[in-house]
Amino acid sequence: MIEFSQVTVTYPDAARPVLSDVSLVVEEGELCLVAGPTGAGKSTLLGALNGLVPHFTGGRLSGRVVVGGFDTSLHPPRELASIVGVVGQDPLSGFVTDTVEEELAYAMEQLAVPPDVMRKRVEETLDLLGIADLRNRPLRTLSGGQQQRVAIGSVLTAHPSVVVLDEPTSALDPTAAEDVLAAITRLVHDLGTTVIVAEHRMERVAQYADRLLYLPGDGSVRSGPPAEIFETSAIAPPIAELGRLAGWSPLPLSVRDARRLAGPLRSRLRKLSVVGRSLSVTGSALDVREVVVRYGDVLAVRGVDLRVGPGEVVALMGRNGSGKSSLLWAVQGSGPRSAGKVDVGGVDPASLKPRVARQRVGLVPQTPADLLYLDSVDAECAQADTESQVPAGTARKLLDRLTPGIAGEAHPGDLSEGQRLSLVLAIQLASAPPVILLDEPTRGLDYHAKRRFAAALRELASQGHAIVLATHDVEFVATAATRVAVMAEGELVADGPTKEVVVASPAFAPQVAKILAPEPWLTVDEVAEALT
Ligand SMILES: Nc1ncnc2c1ncn2[C@@H]1O[C@H](COP(=O)(O)OP(=O)(O)OP(=O)(O)O)[C@@H](O)[C@H]1O
Ligand SMILES: Nc1ncnc2c1ncn2[C@@H]1O[C@H](COP(=O)(O)OP(=O)(O)OP(=O)(O)O)[C@@H](O)[C@H]1O
């Protein structure tokens, strides 16, 4: 269905090609996971499938890409649209209509699908993705995860023979991610659709994948069964890393398979204790009282109380649309707040000018690109140093720590998703306000980058900063957060130490916890530390 023959892609001014002499075949009806480090070229590979690369991104592509019998160099993306459906990394920028229903119907209208078929498929898709109650909503008013579901739905309705998804679950809560992947797997089985998914949260996808295309970052692509490639790959999901540590062979990819193998490891660990990271918190850096956020008829946040002490890293979790982003923006002061009080060091940030408020409460938004407007990485870093009155080079040092190797002269718009996020994180963390809020801050980051980011957050916390991050990334929460607060329908419904909250809830438990339950281990690092 898909064939790359000696494909090389080079972006203008790049020192070396992103993809170098890549040849591979993906069969019809395969579900294929594309993985590898941040900036390795995954989106580039995906873009080559519908001709976006190089027709729209610039750069040069040599070799041949054939999809469903069409050579993508001879057919512009518009002509390939009936064969290849693409869901990009930023759903909002891909929307062409105003409301949910219109968006779901749009691709079918372009293909002149008969109205009765169209109607039926829209209804099916609304149910399949659990968004029936949002059907008349303007797309701009949806939460990040709701937008992502609509974006996926709008591609599925047209029944293309190849579906390409770039990090499709990054904004989805864990349960929604499972549902969406189940829907996609059903497509593969029932319609023989070929699905290509790039995903950093491999723990969510690896078990469904027939094939892994692994990009180590040197321009090459390895193609094969996931379990085989994970034996040696630098980036692998926690389940595979645990399997490597325990010497399991072949490596399991589902929690169920791993549990069958984990008996001996569990008994060994039972005699050891988890290295505790207990925290005694004194005082409060952030005090949120009875905060309410209302948008017209939608009550997004219903009287939330939250106190965060210096040194805490609080993960705000909860279903899509449960009010996490609304709460963060209301706390930071630039979002709507219908009632309630926020206290940061004796002041309500909403009462301050935005510039002054930012020195007390920083917020990294869900679409971090909004914060970048200069024309090079160096310029952004220099500006951040000046604005936050920190020594020159501070932001750049942080950036190198999070994701090394990004060229200073690169245009922020040309960076990969993970590189761009790292840049925004570096800029925001350089100013290091006492309270740092982060909205879904791990998109595009590989497991190593997330470890380094977690370490940077812990370091800030140990210096007395208070950190709140809204996220669906259960593996990241397990490494980074000291405490977890769960929201449901605008209210806080659970709040406690990370270990207690995530082990108690299957939806929020990381893979290691599920495999080793009832033993209280959350990460491969903890297990490795105890075994040495
Ligand atoms: N339009 C462009 N012009 C110049 N360089 C680009 C362009 N698009 C991507 N790049 C560079 O090519 C490399 C690969 O980017 P790509 O987006 O394909 O990576 P990725 O593996 O998808 O990354 P992520 O995991 O962060 O999403 C990066 O170094 C990026 O900076
Ligand atoms: N401008 C708006 N107008 C109307 N409703 C809105 C608006 N912004 C958000 N909402 C609704 O408020 C609710 C909470 O949204 P919010 O973005 O805070 O949720 P969230 O927990 O951050 O979700 P996600 O995990 O998907 O990012 C959702 O039902 C959303 O559709």
From TrEMBL:
<dbReference type="GO" id="GO:0043190">
    <property type="term" value="C:ATP-binding cassette (ABC) transporter complex"/>
</dbReference>
<dbReference type="InterPro" id="IPR003593">
    <property type="entry name" value="AAA+_ATPase"/>
</dbReference>
<dbReference type="InterPro" id="IPR003439">
    <property type="entry name" value="ABC_transporter-like_ATP-bd"/>
</dbReference>
<keyword id="KW-0677">Repeat</keyword>
<dbReference type="GO" id="GO:0016887">
    <property type="term" value="F:ATP hydrolysis activity"/>
</dbReference>
<comment type="similarity">
    <text>Belongs to the ABC transporter superfamily.</text>
</comment>
<keyword id="KW-1278">Translocase</keyword>
<dbReference type="InterPro" id="IPR015856">
    <property type="entry name" value="ABC_transpr_CbiO/EcfA_su"/>
</dbReference>
<dbReference type="InterPro" id="IPR027417">
    <property type="entry name" value="P-loop_NTPase"/>
</dbReference>
<comment type="function">
    <text>Probably part of an ABC transporter complex. Responsible for energy coupling to the transport system.</text>
</comment>
<keyword id="KW-0067">ATP-binding</keyword>
<feature type="domain" description="ABC transporter">
    <location>
        <begin position="286"/>
        <end position="514"/>
    </location>
</feature>
<feature type="domain" description="ABC transporter">
    <location>
        <begin position="2"/>
        <end position="242"/>
    </location>
</feature>
<dbReference type="GO" id="GO:0042626">
    <property type="term" value="F:ATPase-coupled transmembrane transporter activity"/>
</dbReference>
<protein>
    <submittedName>
        <fullName>Energy-coupling factor transport system ATP-binding protein</fullName>
    </submittedName>
</protein>
<dbReference type="Pfam" id="PF00005">
    <property type="entry name" value="ABC_tran"/>
</dbReference>
<dbReference type="InterPro" id="IPR017871">
    <property type="entry name" value="ABC_transporter-like_CS"/>
</dbReference>
<keyword id="KW-0547">Nucleotide-binding</keyword>
<keyword id="KW-0472">Membrane</keyword>
<keyword id="KW-0813">Transport</keyword>
<dbReference type="InterPro" id="IPR050095">
    <property type="entry name" value="ECF_ABC_transporter_ATP-bd"/>
</dbReference>
<dbReference type="GO" id="GO:0005524">
    <property type="term" value="F:ATP binding"/>
</dbReference>
<keyword id="KW-1003">Cell membrane</keyword>
